[in-house]
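Same chain as my last thread, 144 residues:
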Amino acid sequence: MDAVGRGFPPGEFRVSDADRDRALSELSEALRDGRITADEFDQRAGETLRARTGKELTALLADLPWPSPAATRTADPERADHAFGIRAVMSASAFSAVLLSAKAITDALSPGFSWAGGTVAPAVLAVLLVGLIIVLHVTRADRS
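reply #2:
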């Protein structure tokens, strides 16, 4: 396996600090998984920090499996449930706001309407629900 296959610069090309950090991360994962001992980790970590070329880094990791890419890891189910819950509340709020707005408008246009009971209360509730939708939308955008 060459350096290109592991994502390090090929052959005798020099590595960066980021390359060394990634190699240390792979070694840490191997230690956590029980693939190498603490003594092996210490020895390889020292060599990793002294490595100058992609070939040297690749040799330190040659007997270890490639780490799984972070992008292929499964999403956090709790976060997915939370996102679904927020979408459900936003949808229910939008539906309710439309119904309350329609009620307020029809009461305002009908003869003998009551400002306090029939028109203002549903309109205020509709505005509050729209405000809730905006807050949830902004909160959801900040989390992603």
